[in-house]
Amino acid sequence: MKKLFTLLIMPLMALMGVNAQTDVTNTYLSNPSFESATAVSTTIAGWSNAGNIMQSQSNTSFSLKEGTWYAEKWQSSGSLTGINLSQQVATIPNGWYLLKVAGFTNQNTGGAFVYANSDSTEVFGTSDYSVLVNVTAGTLKVGFKAIKSSNWVACDNFRLYSLETTPYLLLNTTELMFDAANLSKTFFVKAVNLTSDIALSAPAGITLNKTTITPAEAAAGVNVKATYNGSVNITDALISLTSGTLTSTIKVNASNADTGCFTPLYTDRPNIISNPLMNSLTGYAGWGTREVTTAYVYCGTSSLKVTGKCGGSLDYGLTAKLKPNTMYRVKAMVSTNGTGEGKIGISGAIASGNVTKTFTTDMGEWKVLDFSFTTKASLSSINMYLNSCETQTATELYIDNWEMYELFDAPTLSVQPTLLLFDALNPVRTFEVKGANLISDITLTPPAGVTLDKTSVSAEEAQAGAAVTAEYDFSVSLDNDSIVLKGSYVNAKITVNAFNAVEDCYNMLYDDKTNLISDPLMNSLSTYGGWGNKSIVSDGNAYCNNSGFINGTALCYPNSGSIDASITWKPFKKYRIYAMVRTENGTMNIGVSNVGAGGDMNFVVPNTNGVWQQFDATFTTGATAGAGLCFFNGCGASTGYIGYIDNWQIYELDDPNIVVDPMFLDFDPQFTTSSFTVIGQNLTENIVLTAPAGITLDKTTLTIAEASETGATVNATYDVAADIVGGEITLTSGTVTKKLPVNASKYLVNPGFERDITLGWTTNEGGMVRQSNESFTLKKGIFYAEKWMNSGGSLTGINLSQTVLVPNGNYTLKVSAQAIQQSDGTFPGGAYIIGNTYGIEVVETGEYSLDIDVTDGTLIVGFQVVQAGNWVAVDNFRLISNTTGLRNNHSLTGVNAYILNNKINTDITLDNTTLTKIKVYGVNGIKLAEKEVSLHAGLNRVTIDKELTRGVYLVEIVADGKFAAFKLVK
After folding, report:
1. Residue among 554, 644, 576, 553 nearest 607 (CA)
2. Do domains 21-165 and 285-407 have the same CATH topology?
3. Which pLDDT band, with edges at 50, 70 and 90, does 186 fall under?
């Protein structure tokens, strides 16, 4: 392959076209060529010299100096900073001006600038630099500054020209050269006083990101990107820029010699090595015998060669090119051609000693030398070199394709998941290897009994994310063993547990669905979280070889335990939970968290009295479902704290389903409208909606299309005619039915705390707060009101109340409440349900009923704590009018309640089959009995199976959202 020389293009400010201008240098600038100097000095006539850094100089080191004197700053090493040599022109006519300056930075470092007002041009090698500036305020500041440059900078021969109305085009280069290491170049275009657009054209093989530049764009200055396709050689072709009669060109040369054997490591950052293809010694320093050779190359037709055992050194200066405390990567193709050992070294870069990377190759062999290092906190003189000095022995050293890059981030390596569990159900697992900024391949080493389909992952594969399959052969059990991943500067591991027991007692519910429990056989707790007294048992108590075990000493945290499985729930999806369970001393709990239900959703695991039983439950998530848990513990409504679990399975179902969000509607006099979203999943029929009396829906039918995907919004309105207790909006599609609970209060505002507690309620400072967890087992809806302090404490002086206007008469207030001392589980009392001057003490967790007479049209209801336990809670305030004396049917007609054979009996006449609830309360407001039964259309007689003693009883009947209440005396 032919390899052309790629010369470093200095960013010379080239003046193009027919450019007429007036030289006003001596009119406005003082001492522009520093010829007023008589000796080397930091005091330079006519100029402000910040920090007295620059000085006049008369030697011949700066080849572009004009006359005898120029301005410079030199130091032996390090980077020059804070230089600013300037002068201010106090008064100058507005208009366009051209400033030209001869400038220089050592080793093309850059970081220095020629400037005029806010416009500037960066200075690299020895050249003439130009700046176009538009003076608009009658003043001009010109100068030379170095923000951070090399150890030597210089300037001379400031010239200022007035352009007036003459069209003028300025380019920052006259030539562009492309090759495999330089596939794109950018040039800067600035023009003034144009009357037409600039048209740009490029030769074949070159594309420009702009082919037209407007006069306004040109006046502001435009960067144009030229891209080489790498497929053709280009010799002395032209990029042309034309505006009217004004034409400028940029010479283009390009070589495709290296495109087949050089691919840059990175394209999102510059290669610090300016001449990586080794076509010339340009940009390199050193000593001894070093040369360009075409006799022995890796890529193209040339490489750089150093001859002799310590016979020379090829150096690349890095001073002012590296940042402190920064990681860099170096890569090159190297060879000693079978003559011994060579090295690439870097001095001055790290805290202790030099970076040294040695290499040896056979005759005719090229190797990749690839390494990284991190610079120290303070940098001065830094040099990278190729030689065979010190202990190295090679007499021939070759290098090609030399690259060096800043690593914006350190190399990283990660795996997901970080734990693999193998068993009879899961002999094959997969994991992903992900890496960034890697400088070597990743090797993977599995433990005995596990084989991998890949034992090496390249840096490129890891960057994209590489999937690796691991297979277990059941030859050995593995307990916290590891798959080890290693690369340069990075490593990672995956914990491996493997069980080779035969699981013939596992009942997998579905073959076509994914079990979301990663270890359903309960072989290990490694994939589970949780707390407390949890373990795996393998004795005779286990159901199937191994089982999860909660061995608590009391209810819930911290005395019981919890086995938690992490699950990412999807919104509005139906799930099925299945497990084999066994309890010893009462009921247990399987619950789910973050399923969009406003708190945990708990399911009772029955008391199995030491016998293994199936647990099976389904539920549907809400809109906010996300990363959460499924847990087995002795909390929630549990009465026990010792239990076992096995064959744990959770599946996302695709059965026909109706999802409703929110899962509860609550109305009152201030909140008479609400809305809910209905989503149909896998339905074959439209959805029909039926609301209880008092609720009107704006849609009573939803098509399959309306309810699909994001669902349909249905608006509901409450007529405030009567209370609705236990009402339901029924949604039906074929055999699928969904019920949306509805409560509505005619008088009380926010009786279930489903809105902020300040709406309708007043509470004293430090009093009751709104809570959404599941701790209060009698809550209705999502929220309730509570006050809690540390166990053993005593709550005092709490008042929660609201005042409403009602017709005079007799009312019954019903409330769910508790007041408990959690330290010993007792109910010390001291908390009261209140209604005007009436009250009933809360002596256990339950539903309370309070009769109230209203004589002045005002009713105050609420909850007071005089001195109670450490936790009180209330919810579901309901107000029942008893305006007809002992019997009040409210909106439910055709019902009667009476005492027969020492038991309460009810006669209930219905229009259709309806789920009916009957509750009986004592005179103290405590619920004595409850029965829920599905009654058919017509007359139904229901007996409450509870022997009565002498006293007064309140009977409450709820059906189809309608309500009736009776007082009975025995």
Report:
1. 644
2. yes
3. very high
Three-state DSSP at 710 gives: coil
CATH class for the domain made up of 887-969: mainly beta
CATH class given for the domain over 412-498: mainly beta
Q: Give the contacts of 557 (CB within 8 A, at least 6 positions apart).
A: 531, 532, 635
Contact 508, 539 (CB under 8 A): no
Tell me the pLDDT of the chain averaged across its residues. 90
Ranges of beta strands (E only) in 826-870 are: 831-835, 838-841, 846-854, 858-867
CATH, range 762-881: 2.60.120.260
Place of tokens 């349900």: 833
Q: Stretch 844-872: mean pLDDT, rounded?
A: 93
Q: Are 767 and 798 in contact (CB under 8 A)?
A: yes
Which residue, among 255, 235, 253, has the nearest Cα to 3 in the 3D structure?
255
pLDDT in tens, 75-134: 988 889 999 999 999 999 999 999 999 999 987 778 899 999 999 999 988 999 999 999
Q: Residue 462: left (phi > 0), alpha (psi -120 to 50), or beta?
A: alpha
What is the three-state SS of 97-145? EEEEEEEEEHHHCCCEEEEECCEEEEECCCEEEEEEEEECCCCEEEEEE
Query: Does 25 or 268 have the greater pLDDT score?
Result: 25
CATH code: domain 657-744 is 2.60.40.3450
Q: Class assignment of domain 285-407? A: mainly beta
**Domain 170-254: CATH architecture, name and number where available:** Sandwich (2.60)
pTM, 2 dp = 0.43
Ordered by start, the domain boundaries in the chain are 21-165, 170-254, 285-407, 412-498, 529-652, 657-744, 762-881, 887-969
**What confidence score (pLDDT) does residue 924 get?**
66
The single-letter DSSP state of residue 544 is S
User: 3-state DSSP call for residue 486?
Assistant: strand
Tokens of 361: 């190759």
Residue 518's nearest CA partner among 421, 626, 629 is: 421
Cα pseudo-dihedral 369, 370, 376, 379, rounded to 10: 60
Where does the pLDDT of residue 911 fall: very low under 50, low under 70, confident under 90, or very high at 90 and above?
confident
Token pair for 220:
């502001």
Tokens representing residue 907 in the block: 């006669």
Integer Cα distance of 445 and 484 in angstroms: 5
For 215, the enclosing helix (H) or strand (E) is helix 215-220
Contact predicate 680/658, CB 8 Å: yes
